[in-house]
Design brief:
Helix content is 49%, strand content 10%. The chain is an alpha/beta fold. It folds into 2 domains: 10-113, Conserved hypothetical protein from pyrococcus furiosus pfu- 392566-001, ParB domain, CATH 3.90.1530; 127-270, no CATH class. A 5-stranded mixed beta sheet has the order 1-2-5-3-4. α1 (18-25) links the parallel β1 and β2. α2 packs across α4 and α11 runs antiparallel to α12 (255-270). The protein is elongated. Residues 1-6 have low confidence and may be disordered.
Length: 289
């Protein structure tokens, strides 16, 4: 027969010192609704004695969201043991300290140390998950384009950096550029007709080209998809032949190279230049013209 367990009441404690938090934790499990100041975060981190390796990219992601005032009170908790050790939440605490900004959150204190083994075992929601939950059509394609457009705007023209936009940053970018939704539609349609370039590269290229000339961008992707009436030496025909041949030989073509091919073909079309073969050098993706 199961034993009934009384629920833990949440105590409102806007600001506490490290000593006060530790004293409360020593009394056993409790939940607090609290504002964690940079000073308190720093103090708690001195009690971060047994935890995972720090992921600097994750900390920096959190810092940007905190500084952008886009860190909502969403029910996620920081967890402390009965002795005050940080069991879960070290990245958030590091971000609060680094951002230099207080954050309102929940913390659960007074937990047995052995409970740490069962924490963070679920699958983290992706940007695509968040977009789908908000009813966004083509959520996976939109998310993949947002990631690359964000990198492009950060100046990463080789797409080799490991950091990615947070969910909030992705949603803000989509708000600033709602036309990315149309780019996702075009990417999915082109991919269905010509399945040799991923939607993320197609959609990113469409977003960049559409900002230069919407009419020519529409024609470019229609011809890329159907290959209709492309004479010998046409850049789009050279593009189709190159990626088809490479996929047959290599199986998978690096993502940045795919975008490089798209930009080279686009620039050749824009300058009315013939291309019998599409040849590019590895490195920075060129700027569309």
């Amino acid at each position: 027969m199961a034993t009934a367990v009384a629920p833990i009441a949440v105590q409102l404690a806007p600001e506490l010192t490290l000593e006060e938090v530790n004293q409360l934790a020593s009394a056993g499990p409790a939940a607090l609704h609290i504002t964690i100041t940079p000073a308190l975060a720093k103090g708690l981190l001195t009690q971060n004695r047994r935890n995972r390796h720090i992921r600097e990219n994750t900390v920096n992601d959190y810092v940007r969201d905190i500084q952008n005032n886009s860190w909502p009170l969403n029910g996620e908790t920081i967890k402390l043991s009965i002795s005050g050790d940080v069991l879960d939440g070290q990245h958030r605490l590091l971000a609060i300290e680094k951002a230099g900004t207080p954050v309102e959150t929940f913390i659960v204190i007074g937990l047995p140390p052995e409970t740490q083994a069962t924490m963070d075992t679920g699958m983290r929601r992706t940007v695509a998950d968040a977009l789908a939950l908000s009813g966004e059509a083509n959520a996976a394609t939109v998310a993949s384009i947002l990631r690359r457009v964000w990198a492009w705007e950060q100046g990463d023209r080789k797409f080799t950096r490991r950091n990615s936009p947070t969910t909030t940053e992705s949603q803000m970018l989509l708000g600033a550029h709602p036309e990315i939704r149309r780019s996702a539609e075009i990417a999915n349609r082109t991919r269905a007709a010509f399945p040799h370039i991923p939607q993320s590269a197609l959609g990113t290229a469409h977003f960049l080209f559409n900002a230069i000339d919407p009419g020519e961008a529409a024609w470019f992707f229609q011809r890329l998809g159907d290959g209709a009436e492309l004479p010998s030496g046409h850049p789009i025909l050279a593009l189709r032949n190159r990626v088809t041949s490479e996929r047959a030989k290599e199986g998978t073509v690096p993502w940045a190279r795919q975008l490089t091919y798209l930009v080279h073909a686009w620039n050749a079309v824009r300058s009315d230049r013939r291309l019998s073969r599409l040849q590019v050098k590895a490195g920075t993706v060129p700027t569309p013209k």
